[in-house]
Every structure is written in C-alpha cells, then in structure tokens.
Amino acid sequence: MSMRPLLSVLTALALFTPCLALAQAAAPIEDKPAVKFEEVERGFFLEAQVGALVLFGPKADENSGISPGLSIQMGLGYDITKSFSLGLFVLGSNIDTPSGFRSTNDKPGDVSAFTIGLLGSYAFWGRPDDNGIDRLFLDAHAGAGVSLMGPKDVYESMDILVRAGIGLEYFTRLRHFSVGVDLDFAYGVTNLGAGVLILPNMKYTF
Predict the structure, then answer these.
(1) In the CATH hierarchy, which fold is given to the domain comprising 45-205?
(2) At CB < 8 A and 24+ separation, what contacts does 11-15 make?
(3) pTM over the 0.85 mark
(4) CA distances from 56 to 6, 49, 82, 89, 172 (A)
(5) d(CA 70, CA 60)
(6) R_g of the chain computed on alpha carbons
(7) What are the structural domain ranges in the chain?
(8) ω before 151 within 30° of 0 (cis)?
(9) Mean pLDDT per segment of 10 residues, for the chain of length 206 residues?
(10) From the CB of residue 3, how many other CB atoms can be counted at a distance below 10 Å?
C-alpha cells in the first residue's frame, strides 16, 4: 500500500479532531430548569385541634348553668380551591356540669360527646407578607355532625350538632405547616343546646 494515501488520511484526521473539539467546547451548556416550590401548599391536609367547649346550658337537663369542657378535634380535608376547602372532622368533648345538674334520667354527672361530621371553609380575606406571599387568612366555616352522648346512665340518645364560625390561619415558612385558631358557635339540637367552641389549630398539608 502506498504511504501517500495513508498520510493524507492521518493529516485529515489531525486537522478535523481539533475543529470538532472546538465546536463542542463552543456549544452553550444549558442549565437544568429550576424546581419551583409553592410557598403555600394546597391539597390534602391533616389537622389537630385542642381547645374548649363551653355550653350555656344543656337542653335535656335541669339546673345545668354554664358547663365548660375540654375538646379535641382531628380533621382530614382537601383544598378544592385556594379559598374553599371541605373536610371530615372528629370531635371529642368532655363537659363538666355543675353540682346541681340533673339529666332527663334525673341523674347527675359529667357528659361526654363524640361527634363525626363535615365542615366547609371559605377564606374571604388574605394578607401578604413582605415578599408578596399570602400567608395570613381569615375564613368563615360551617358544618354539622352526629354526636354520640355518654355515659349511658346520664344521656342515652344521640344528638345533631351544627356549628358555624370564623377562623384565623397563618401559613408558616415551613411550607407544609400552618397554625391558627377557630371560634365557633355550636348548637346541639336535642341535648347539648347552645355553646361556644374555641379551638387552636395546627395543620399539615401534603
């Protein structure tokens, strides 16, 4: 084989390789698109509330007077829009009745109520932080549920609990967490009567 063709091929490769390297070096390197996170998460949420229930006087009684109690609530819901959410709540309350209290069975004693129901909430006002992110909200909410009364030797029946009120909620910079407080007027149609719920709130949104 003649050396001239081989030298021509080697020369061409020697000239082409630096040009290819320069072309690759000159090609712009594209940055990966930045991952954007929502400053305020919306979607499915889980919340826990511990506070007070104060009854102005249970209906199915005599001489009850004002009856304070402890309430614990768990909620699971979903943000349908930025402003409207719908959820399921489970509310447990223990009510301390005065010494003169007598139930419809003519028996004294504290009263417990376990309520399962639905609650809808609409945020009608929001305030942005220094960066223009809406974090503080004021909402109106309403709901209803079925209450199981106890103990059986004091209250033997169920009750229908309706509630409505306002809530203040602040979405922290931890994105998924928010804190707040709810103030509700509550009414037990059959037994509990009128009362007020005060429930500080902590919520985690997935």
Answers:
(1) Porin (2.40.160)
(2) none
(3) no
(4) 105, 22, 36, 23, 35
(5) 20
(6) 32
(7) 45-205
(8) yes
(9) 53 53 54 69 96 82 77 98 96 86 72 95 93 93 94 78 98 94 94 92 96
(10) 7
